[in-house]
Write a structure and sequence with these properties.
Number of helices: 6
Radius of gyration: 14 Å
Helix content: over 70%
Order of helices and strands: EHHEHHHH
Number of domains: 1
Number of strands: 2
Strand content: under 5%
Distance between the termini: 31 Å
CATH class: Mainly Alpha
Largest sheet: 2 strands, antiparallel
Shape: globular
Strand order of the largest sheet: 1-2
Amino acid sequence: MAKSIPSRKTTAAEAKIYMRKAEQFYRTMSEAVLREDWDAVGLNAIHCVISANDALLGIRHGIRPSGKNHLEATALLLQLETGEDAKKNASRFDRMLNKKHLVEYEGRSLSPSEGRKMAADAERFLGWVNSRAR
């Protein structure tokens, strides 16, 4: 039996708001890349993928994660989306979420290579979500 993952119902209108937020975080992340503000890149990349995931699950399934642990969102994504692309992007999403504590709370900055990798992952994840959510 599959473990119940905390979620809540969401409307199509809310899901569209999550998508707009994801796109705003993506644009801000892209501007930060140009300025080489790597911590801003990381934080906006993380918020981009979280909002994009909420948008995807809201648009396609009418729900979004509601647990206190963002990592449960990966499990919900894998439970609802299938196929190799879903697995690849769930892995990408999980990798991003695992960087959240580092970016927000640890006493060190992201390196340029970490920032570039996070930006690339966010771009790929958002592109995948856009292809599925239309």
